[in-house]
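ARCHIVE CARD
Drawer: 12
Card no.: 0347
Subject: one protein chain, sequence and derived structure
Cross-reference: see card 0346
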Amino acid sequence: MFLLDTDPQHGDERVGALRERLGTLGDSLVVVGGPDLWQVHVHVADAGAAVERAIEAGRPHQIRITHLGGSQAESAPAQPGHRTPSTGLVACAAGPGLSDLFESTGAVVVAGGPGRRPSTAAILAAIHRTQATEVAVLPNDADTLSVARIAAASARSEGIRVTVVPTRAQVQGLAAAAVHDPDRRFDDDVVSMSAAAGAARDGAVTVAVRNGLTSAGECRIGDALGVLDGDFVVIGSGLETVAIDVLHRLLASGGELVTIVVGAGGHDSLARTVAAHARGLGRGLEVNVVDGGQPRYPLLIGVE
């Protein structure tokens, strides 16, 4: 059971789609509420898949799982071969520093990110390398999400239980991986990672490489662009000003932890400036600066 926050303008539509998807996963489905807050109850064999569908509809919270005897996940026999009954994690990383961060949490890493979508075969191979019977996948990029789901479906046909946590940004993946616990029940681990990812808001700064029209207006080559949750929201002449603007937009909804991921190309000074600004806001924020090494984006910014 969980509560679901939705956009009141599109809540009915998204919850209607959620009802259909949950109906294919289990039974005893009850959805009540509206227009922006819903309560959902459902019996499913794969709680992780249910949470994944909920994240597509809005922001699930107060997630409570009750394990019922006789579920398919608990009664399925072990698969033949050399796999051990453990929980594995696969993460897509956009740079060498991010790869190191994900590997430190126990993840098998696949190289890929914005503009460099990994192949289905690469993600499937990473699932196999975990040597686990239950595997969570963090795509960490909107374009990689569909590829990860295809790879997961292929792995399931081989008897491996796989759930894709729908992380659409590297900082969401970092938040999810930080709470990963291979010794926890798989469903509980997926729910914890999904909740952490859902609570992480993501931003970034980049530089326009061509003239064009963005969701924030017209930009020219060399303009600094600010990104919030995947959309361009600000255009400016300097990365520092735009990065601080993005930071303030992320903090407008609250937050306690700021993570700044430094991209390739030597942007340490920019990161230090933004970090100092965050610490100077007087909000008691915890601020972490890490080396990501990602191309295209001098800074990624996450707020939890």
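Annotation on reverse: Residues 70-83 have pLDDT under 50 and may be disordered. The chain has three domains: 2-61, 77-194, 201-303.
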